[in-house]
Amino acid sequence: MSDTVYADPGYRDLDVGTIMREGHPDIAEGDEHIVSAVRKLRADLGRPLRVLDVGSGSGDLSLMLARALPDCEVIANEIAPNPLAQARAKLAGRPRARVFDRPFEEWDEPVEVVVSWGSHHHLAHDYLRHVRRVLTPDGVLVIGDEFCPEYLTAEDRERLARAEEVLLVDGYVFDSAAAAEAYRASGEVPEWSLRLERDRRRALWTWYKFVGDHAAARGAWPVLIAELAIARDDLVTGNAEEHKTSPLLLERELALNGFAVHDKTVIGDRDPALQSFVVYTCRAGA
Ligand SMILES: C[S@@+](CC[C@H](N)C(=O)[O-])C[C@H]1O[C@@H](n2cnc3c(N)ncnc32)[C@H](O)[C@@H]1O
């Protein structure tokens, strides 16, 4: 955590969340989609909701939610000092909004909505189990991320569909606990996991070049500079704090954690190699 752009003291005077909404593709559109998904749940359930925004960053989306849903309780959950201070300041005038400044895994109150927006690729993926524990029976997980544009093949998808567990160890994907254990014991990465990682890096690089060009074309130099650091972190296979994987992989992880996807919205109407942002609305199923 200490050396990501979110925690780096060099970014203390910069609100990374806010600049990204201007100079980075697809984030502002995702915000709008998430706010309307939560507003719809508020209308469907007919009662004020408690909404937890996990990895809220500097609180831009939390503030949008608090404004759009004035009778709901909005909790911005963040642990890195710079964005935490920024989120506190943004939410200060909102009586029903608050900040939870410990790791999400320590949150233990029931909530109707967990929003995970851009945070999935920063967290150990087993946080999805904790989401299930804290969601009310009628609750919803709205999970959107900047994914690595899809790099899994139809065969990979079939293989994952047969997997009873999906694990990410040192940045490599394993489709069974036994395969992960064998890797831990021998240090040898199976051919399939190596190939997925190679394809991930290629797809990521295409995406980051597009993001960089998008920022440069708008003169959004702080965004480009931050993205160069983020791209470097992400391309380092074992960097657990910045590791974007594929939408299909998340879909399998959601199913394995007992979530049913009710809506899937892809942001950005372009070539699939340049489609990174996807937002899912999920309910706890069986
Ligand atoms: C890309 S940022 C999310 C951006 C933010 N959701 C927004 O809308 O601007 C991911 C954030 O997750 C936070 N994070 C990482 N691990 C966490 C944890 N265990 N609990 C809460 N937040 C965490 C990081 O500090 C980082 O600020």
From TrEMBL:
Q: Which UniProt keywords apply?
A: Methyltransferase, S-adenosyl-L-methionine, Transferase
A GO BP annotation: methylation
The chain positions of domain Methyltransferase read 51-139
Superkingdom of this entry's organism?
A: Bacteria
Task: Check the record and name the CDD domains matching this protein.
Answer: AdoMet_MTases
Q: Enumerate the InterPro entries for this protein.
A: Methyltransf_25, SAM-dependent_MTases_sf
Report any Pfam family annotated for this entry. Answer: Methyltransf_25
A Gene Ontology MF term for this entry?
methyltransferase activity
Which PANTHER family does the record match to this protein? METHYLTRANSFERASE, UBIQUINONE BIOSYNTHESIS O-METHYLTRANSFERASE, MITOCHONDRIAL
The name under which this protein is listed is Class I SAM-dependent methyltransferase
The organism is Bailinhaonella thermotolerans
